[in-house]
Structures are given as structure tokens and as C-alpha cells.
Amino acid sequence: MKLKLIIRLLILGYIYMNSNLSIAQSSLDAIIGSVIDNNEVPIEAVAITLLHPKDSTYIKYTISNFDGNFSFEEVPPNSYLLQLSSLGFKSYFKNITYSNSQINLGTIILEEDLMELDGITLTAVVPVQIKQDTVSFSASSFKTNPDDNLEELLNKLPGVDIDSDGKVNAQGNDVAKIMVDGKEFFGGDPAVVLKNLSADDIYKIEIIDQKSEESQLTGVEDGNKEVVINFTLKKTKKSKGFGKASAGIGLDKRYFSNLNYNKFSSKTQFAVIGKFNNINVTGSNIQGFLKNTNGIDESEEEDSNSAKRTKSLSGFLKTGVAGFNIGHEFKKKEDFNVDYFYNLSENNGNSNSKRITFSNNNNFDYKANNYYSNSTNNHNLNLNYKNKSHKNYRLFIKGQFRADNVVSETERDGQYFISDSILATTNFNKNTIERNKTLSNISLNYFQKLNDSGRNFNIGFNTSLNTFKLNNNQNTFIERGLQNNNKSSREINTLRDESTRTNINNINFKYTEPLGGNNSLKLESYIKNERRGEDVNQYKTTIKTTSEEEILLYDYKHVLNSYQTRLAHAYNIPKFNSYIGVELQNIDRLFGVKKEPYITISNSYINPVTFLQYKPKKGQRYRFSYKKTIKTPNSYESSTVINDLNPFSIRKGNPDLKPEKINLFSLLSIIHNFKSGINFNTRIQYQHSNNGITRSIAVDDDFIKTTSYANNGQKSRFSSSLSFSKRMKKIGLRYTLKNRNLFTTSNSIINLQSNQVDTKDYSFSLILENNNKRIIDVKAGANYSINNTGFSIENDLDRKFSKQQYYSMVDYDFTKKLNFNTQFDYIIYKDNKFSSDQKLPLWNATLSYAFSNKKNDILKLVLIDLLDKNVDIYRNSTINFFEETTSESLGRYIILSFTHRLNRGKKK
Fold first, then answer.
1. What confidence tens digit (pLDDT) does each residue in 608-630 have?
2. Domain residue spans in the chain?
């Protein structure tokens, strides 16, 4: 009932906020006017920008509406340069002074830009330009430091946000891809692009609401769009090579080096990047490194019931990165791109874990000291061919090859305590693992336009091959009966060689038949074939009073075939899109150990799907979608073989599992008000599952946990997010409010007793920053997150933990050559199950000096973790235990670095 009440309140708040944000507040307008052409026709979507009169840097902007009217709200008193710009018209400039009295600019006439002079180019810097589905920003209108990367530049743009995971959001939409000069750069990976190109190399930034390939080909709007950011290089960067080289050395043998070289022509793009450091900087997608950096047992990760648990880069990390990107345009709209990226990381450190495990009345505590050392080698090759040169068809071919080698050594000294903190069992585990993974993937998509009315078809093919090889050498020494002096011990030595091969083939076919009147019929077919083979050779020796040997050999096979046929009706006009269909799906499964009878299961399902989208005007979008999907048990959930590699955590599958039926509802609202600068985005999602696949856990008196799986009732998941950003009236500040909520309910079985787990996660944040960032950039904020996890099996074990984070940042230019930046974070951890509430202050600072006005050579002093708080905290809640892990981190270091920039070009 509480959950339903919260859902209703959120939806009511959602409707209220949307209705209020749609209402124009003309009483707040400070500057108003209208714009027409020479024929007195109003011009829509003209970009009207307020600039600083001295250097023309950006302050704020708005656009004209359908009637050509425009207005600015909440303008601080000052002198401004007003600029009006629109494609095909000459830019209009006017100096104005605002002093708390409304300024009516009247009607402004924009003249058509028809002037062409031989040998003369007239250029005006346009801070903001609106063209159909593209918003373009001039990079020179935003203040950045000379050694800033593209990440720092994007953070200055209105309506753009980058979260802690590196995900980019623009005007309420998640950014799907980042390109350079319209071409993919290192596979379009935002982390690689944003961290390895300099802000000073960029001429303009385009935020593109890109249509689907089908819509681009046929010209029929289908509402399926993705947001893409394209960086256009300065022309001076295209005539010869450009980039930068940096190196630094500091206390405690800390060092780093970076290299970035690029050469772009009208037809060919070439780029090389390289990094080498021991200061925990990856320069790449951080998530790829976190999987092997903290030494925590990954086997429990899938059990987590709480919201996003972002792991941090703890320990001591040495990283090497090298990569290149080559792109070539054969002719207009036909190009080929290849990139290669290599990562080397070596990570080691120590951590301490505290865990409370419950199993009916058999509860116990677990403490462990962990040492880990990991070495990772990663190779990533991407190929991309696009041919959009023909008006009637399009061809896309993509390929990827990835190889990972991980060598991991861990030592874990664990202790099990029963009531009153009585030590009962100790467990010392030493593990050496080598993992080799490869991924090969190739996809082909062909779009064919059959006539001008919208008739078309699309055929796609994708095949992937994954291989996984594991060599595990594990030694475990266990002592039991310490609580009653009935001491016994055993030693287990396990050698396990495991090889897994997974091949997945997907074929899809889509046909669109126009019915007239913006209606169309869509026929879609999807075929999936997945084959997985697992070969295991395990040799185990157990030493008690005598030595016992056990050999486990098996070759396992798992085959999945899925056939889906969908018939749907689509209705598309510029402001409204709908897609309503029904799908027939048949799933066949075959699995089991080879040389034994296989288990075969076949099921058929009817899956409805609905998509509705309404766009009343530019900057507003409302979307509702519903779909039913089927989640089949994976190979280890339905496996007929027991995995006892970890003597304290045994896993076995359930071959009788049925597929899980999932109903997913989502509601999305995006409002980007160009007039007031308001950004308001909400997302609400509800997921309900029948035949939910849940875990069944049994824990015996020797603390050995056996995990299996069962179809145990229903599961539900409700999530919501809200982001509201607005400039504060007349004081030159912008505030951003964010809220995220996650509520999950699922059943599990603990020692044959049903256990309902309810998880509630809340996150609230407030960010304040100044709009005028010419000389000083100031940001301050607070974030509060809380997790409540309740267990029906024992109410007194309900857990609540929270994290408060307060932070501030100041970036100040003392002179044009001297810059100072400082950041301070204060984090408070609280947990009602662990008496280890911690307060963690973190302070970083940098001081940089450029030797010339062109800023080609920069000296920088970097001071990290000045208070030397060498600690990192990770928390986790699952269906039968909760845990806190404290790890050592890099701690304080100071580095002096030097950066040299190549081909900075002429300064305007």
C-alpha cells in the first residue's frame, strides 16, 4: 500500500510539474521582441543570444516561436551584446543595457544572406544556432582552460550533464554516440573521445536529434530518434597534425604521461593516443577496469537487491593505454573507420570485509582481510563501414574483436562468528586465476526504399562468438569447532580448467507498407539462435585425517532458439507518433550433459507492444511505452551440474525452471524551455514479473551456502528519476535538483522458508553553479542517498545505510596565463548494522601556468587528496546477507607536470 501511494504521488507530481512548466510567465520577461524577414513573414527558431560585449562569450540564449516572438527571463542588470542568427540570414547585432526595466526591441528584420564575393569570406561567430533537429554551439563562446579535454567543454554547455559514470545527457536525452567531424572516433565510445581530445581543438558542438535510418531514407517521421553529439574541428587543425604531449613526476614515485596526436583532412582522419601512469587514471571506459580492481568476490554481485552500487577504483593501479583511429571517406556519405585500443592495468591492494548473514535463526557474522593483485591486458578492435550515398538504399557493416587476459591472485583470511561474537570457524583461501576471454562480432544492416510513399524493408544479420577459458588453482584451509574446543581441520586443493564457447546468431526482417493518411503497416520477424558449450575438468584433493581425491569431468550443452513474428500499425505525423502491435513468439530450449539424454522444452507466447509519443513544440517530448518480454533461464540457472569450486558457496541449477514473463511500462517527459532556460526531465518505469526466477539458499551449520533457483511468485520494480534545472533570478546562478528512487520487491527461499525482500533506494542532490564562467567557475552541491532493505524472515535484521556528500569546486583565472582550481568533498557514511560510521574529507587542487599568450606550453602542479584519507568504502545488500568493505586507496600525492601543444593555430 505504501508503494502504491508513493507511485500515485509521484505521478501526480509529474502531471503538476508538466502542466505548470507549460504555462508562459510573461510577467517575468525582461527583454522582448519579434523577428521577421524582408517579406514581413515571422521567422521561427531564430537563435537569440546575449553575449559579453568585450569578448562575445556566451551568457544565455532563447529562440523565437512560430509567430517570431521571443523573450528573455531573469536577466541580471548589465550591458550586453544581442545577436540574432538563423541559417540563410545575416546575423544581427545590437548593444543593449538592461537595468530592471523591460526592454521592448520591437520588430527586427533579418536580411537574407545572398552576398557572394570572389576571394572574400565573411565569417560571424554564432554562439547558438538552431536548425531543424540540431542545436549548435560555438566552442569559442565558452571559457575553458588551455589543457581541458572535451569533457570539461561539455560541462559548460547549457542542458548538458555528465554523471559520475561518464554517461552524457543532453537536454534530457541520453547521448547514444559521440562523433568527430561526423565520423565515429574510437568506436563512438564517449569515454575515449571526451578524455583524449582537447577543447581548444573544437570549432563547434552539435547536439543532433538524429532520426532512425529508416526515417532518414524514406523521409517519414517514425519517432525513433537517438541523440548524437558531433564535434567539428577548427579548420586550422585540418591542415596539419595537432595534439599535445604531457608528462609529470611527483612524490612517492608517482608519475604519468599522455600523448595525443591527430591529423585530419577532408577525406582521411588519423589519431593516436597513449597514456602511462600509476595514479589510478585509466583514460578509458572506467567500468572495464572496475571488474578487476577491488578483489571482492564477484560471485555475490548478481545477488544484489539494492540500487546501483558504483564500485570505485581502490588500491594502487598502474595503467598503460595505446590506440589509433583511421577513417577514410571514399566519396560523399560513404566511409570506412577502423580503431584499435589496448589497455594494460596492474592493480593491487588490501581490504577488510564485514558481513552479517542470516538463515532463519542460524545467523552468523563473517570478517575477512583480503589481499588482491590483478593484471589485465585488453585488446579492442572496431571496424565500421557506412554507405549512405544512394538515395534508395543504405548499407552498414560493423565488426568488433576483443581479447581480455586477466591474471588474479587473492588471499582471504576469513573468520565466522556465532552469537555473542564467538569464533567458530576460520577459513584461509589462496586463489590464483587466469581468465582469457575473446569476443568476435559482425553485423550487417541493409535498408531499401521501394517507392516515395514510404514502402521499404530492412534486413539485418548479427553473429557473435564468445570464448572463455579459466584456469583456477585454489587452496583452502578450514578450522572448525573453535567455539567448543572440538577443533577439526581440513585442507582443500582444487585445480579447475573451464572452457566455454557461446555462439549467437540473429536475423531480423522488417517491412513497411504505407496505408495512406500517415498510416502504415509493419511486419517484423526476428530469429535468434544461441549455442553454448561448457567443458569442465576439475581435480579436487581434500586432506583430513586421510587424503581424498575427487574428479569432476563434464561437457555441457545449452541451445536456445527464439522465433518472433510481429504485426503492428504505425501512425506518424510531426507532432505525434504511435506504434501498436502484437507479437507471436516461440522458444525452444535444449540442454544437458553430453552423452546423457538432453532436456527439451518448447513454449509459445503472445507479446503486445505499444509506443506513443507527443511533441507539442520544440523542446518538449512526452512518451509512453509498454511491452511484454520473456526472460528464459540462462545456462547456469537451469544447469544440471553442481558447481562446488568454492567450498563455502556451492551453486546448482534447476532444469525445471520456466521462463519469466515481464511486463514493462515506462513514461518519459522532457521539457527544455529555450526562453527561461528551464530543463525538466522525468522518467517513470514499472516492471512486473510473473514466474519470477528467484534464488533458493540453504545454509548449514558449517556455514556452507548452497544456492539454487526457483520460479517463486512475482517480482516488481518501480523506478523514477527527476531532474529540474533553472537559472536563479538576477543573481547569475543556476540550480539543479535531481531525485532518483528505486523500489523492488521479490521473493526468495532461505532454508526452505519464504523470504520477501523489499528494497527502497532514494537519492537527492542539489547543485549550484554560476552562469558567467569567463573568469571564475564556481560549483557547489550536496547529495544524499539512502538504502532501506527489509526481510520478512526476520524484521530485526532490516537494514538502513546512507551516504551524504557535500562538495565544492572553484576554477579561477588570476591572469590570462595563471589558473587555479580546487575541489573539496566531504562524505559521511552511516549504517545501522555496522558501528563504523565514517567521515571522509577529500581535497584536491591544481595550479597551472602558461608560458605564452598562445598557451602552447603549460606547467601544472597537481595536489591530490591533500588530507591523505587513504580509504574507500563499498556496501552491498543481498537476499540473505549485507556487507561493508573498506579498501585502501591511493592516498595523497603531488605531481609537477609539463604539457606541450602542437599546432595551436592562429588566435582570433
1. 999 999 988 877 889 999 999 99
2. 29-123
